[in-house]
Amino acid sequence: MIKLDAVDKKLLEMLQQDSKVSVNELSKKLNLTKSPIYDRIKRFENSGLIEKYVAVLDSKKVESIMVIFCSVSLENQKLDAIEAFGLAIETLPEVVESYLMGGANDFLLKVIVKDLEAYHQFSSGILAALPNIAQIKSTFVLNEIKRSSAIPLF
C-alpha cells in the first residue's frame, strides 16, 4: 500500500480523467514544477500503482455489442476449485471483468459479445463447459447509465 498525500491524490485523479494530459498542464494546475510531477508519476509507475495506460472506447460507437453480467455458482468452493475457475476465465476474451463474490453467487462476470447468438454460444458452449459450474444466471444490460475506470481516492 502506498501512502498518498493531497497532491498525489489530485495528480492521480487528473491522470485517471486524462492520462495524455501534458506535464506542463499538470504542473500549472498543481502549482508545481515539472520535475516533482515526473518524479511522482515515475514513483506511481515503479510501485505498480499505475498499472498501465489504456484507451477507453465509447461502447455506443463500437459496432453492435451486448453487455451481460453473469452470476456464476460453483459446485465446489474449495480454494483450488476457485483458483482453477479464475485461471480458466482469464483466458476468455469475452470476460472483461471478473469478481470473486461473497453471498449467493461465487463469481460475477462482465461479458461482452456481439449479439444474443454469440452469448448463447459463449454461455452454453464455453462457460457452462468449464469444470465445477453449478449455475449461471445472466442479466442483460439494456442501457449503460454510468461507466468509469476511475477509482475514487479518499
Q: Note poorly predicted spans.
A: none
Largest sheet entry: 4 strands, antiparallel
Order of helices and strands: HHHEHEEHE
The CATH class of the largest domain, by name, is Alpha Beta
Which structural category fits the helices and strands?
A: alpha+beta
Structure keywords:
single chain; 154 residues; alpha+beta; Arc Repressor Mutant, subunit A; Alpha-Beta Plaits; 2 domains; 4-stranded antiparallel β-sheet; 5 helices; 38% helix; elongated
How would you summarize what this structure contains?
With 154 residues, the chain is α+β, with helices and mostly antiparallel strands. The chain is built from five helices and four strands, in the order αααβαββαβ.
Question: Could you explain how this protein is built, in words?
Answer:
The chain has 154 residues and is of the alpha+beta class. It has two domains: 6-47, Winged helix-like DNA-binding domain superfamily/Winged helix DNA-binding domain (Arc Repressor Mutant, subunit A), CATH 1.10.10.10; 59-140, Alpha-Beta Plaits, CATH 3.30.70.920. It is 38% helix and 19% strand. A four-stranded antiparallel beta sheet has the order 2-3-1-4. The longest helix is centred in the N-terminal third of the chain and has 14 residues, at 34-47. The model has no long low-confidence stretch (mean pLDDT 95).
